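ENTRY TYPE: protein
CONTENTS: sequence, structure tokens:
***
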Amino acid sequence: MSQWPTYAAVFLGGGLGSVARFGLSALLNKGHQLFHWGTFSANMLGCLLIGALVPFFSKTPHSTLALFAIAGFCGGFTTFSTLSWESIKLLEKFGIGPYLLYVGSSILVGLSLTYGGYRAVLQLFKF
């Protein structure tokens, strides 16, 4: 069986996620600010979304729809590389405080939202 539909699903989901992240960042990231709200918001929404989606696909994690939504859309919507770059720029421009706030909150809030989304869906839908 051809892997083409699987790769196409990830490709299309990733493209949609990337465009959504770009739009959110364009809307919320304004110049050289102390906190990059666009990237932070995309990453946090993506964490919540992936946590909420995983239970729905727990029995079919490699289905085309699961790969479209999780690997594709969530993978394209969230961005560790941009978080890393923005963190370095914060450190250079504003010092250690804003850097630690941005990195620390990204990790702690992101993990909390992933877990929260996962637990909420498990409870709501009785998986």
Notes: The chain has five helices and no strands. The radius of gyration is 16 Å. The mean pLDDT is 95.
